[in-house]
């Protein structure tokens, strides 16, 4: 089965990463979660990115705040898709993290979700995997249908209240 690697620059980022882990596990995707810093442990970042494909990983999610270079460093070292997950900060509410991740130089793309958007990072990883794995694509379609049905039910209930 598919495998997603999730990196975070600090253990304190786990609350942001946890929704990604949960949604991936819900879909039966194996997850490896690590604390690796682009600045404090660059050798480990290089090793992880260089061996991720050999370890069976197909998508990488990188959560970081402030300078938020983790996703860019990892993307520079692998051809696997990298999803940047900006972490909210006290300084600018996460805008600093978001801009650090989204403003990558040409040739080193990092797909980026919203600040603290762990669930969307997991869902984007599933959509990427769904290209290769029909069972994941099928479950994603069911997931989206369930969301649509809930909105329709909420709308119907609201209309009855009016």
Write a short abstract of this structure.
The protein has 162 residues and is an alpha/beta fold. 49% of the residues lie in helices and 15% in strands. Helix 1 runs parallel beside helix 5 and helix 2 packs across helix 3.
Strand content: 15-25%
- Main pleated-sheet profile: 5 strands, parallel
Total helices: the number is 6
Shape type: globular
- How does CATH name the architecture? 3-Layer(aba) Sandwich
Question: Would you identify the regions where 5 or more consecutive residues have pLDDT less than 50?
Answer: none
CATH class annotation: Alpha Beta
Defining key terms:
single chain; 162 residues; alpha/beta; Rossmann fold; 5-stranded parallel β-sheet; 15% strand
Outline the fold blueprint.
Blueprint lengths: L2 E6 L5 H13 L3 E6 L6 H10 L7 E6 L5 H8 L4 E5 L8 H8 L8 E2 L5 H13 L3 H28 L1
Helix pairs in contact: 1-5, 2-3, 5-6
Structural account:
With 162 residues, the chain is an alpha/beta fold. Helix content is 49%, strand content 15%. The chain has helices at 14-26, 42-51, 70-77, 95-102, 118-130, 134-161; strands at residues 3-8, 30-35, 59-64, 82-86, 111-112. Strands 2-1-3-4-5 form a five-stranded parallel β-sheet, sandwiched between helices. The radius of gyration is 17 Å and the shape is globular.
């Amino acid at each position: 089965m598919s495998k997603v690697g999730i990196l975070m620059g600090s253990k304190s980022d786990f609350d942001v990463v946890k929704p990604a882990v949960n949604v991936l596990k819900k879909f039966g995707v194996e997850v490896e979660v690590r604390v690796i810093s682009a600045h404090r442990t660059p050798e480990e970042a290089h090793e992880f990115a260089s061996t991720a494909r050999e370890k069976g990983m197909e998508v990488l999610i990188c959560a970081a705040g402030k300078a938020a270079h983790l996703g860019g460093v990892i993307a520079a070292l692998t051809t696997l898709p990298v999803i940047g997950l900006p972490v909210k900060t006290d300084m600018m509410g996460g805008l600093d993290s978001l801009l650090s991740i989204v403003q990558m130089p040409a040739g080193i793309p990092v797909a980026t979700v919203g600040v603290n958007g762990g669930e969307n990072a997991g869902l984007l990883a599933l959509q990427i995997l769904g290209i290769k794995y029909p069972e994941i694509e099928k479950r994603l379609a069911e997931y989206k249908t369930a969301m649509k049905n809930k909105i329709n039910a909420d709308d119907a209930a609201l209309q009855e209240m009016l």
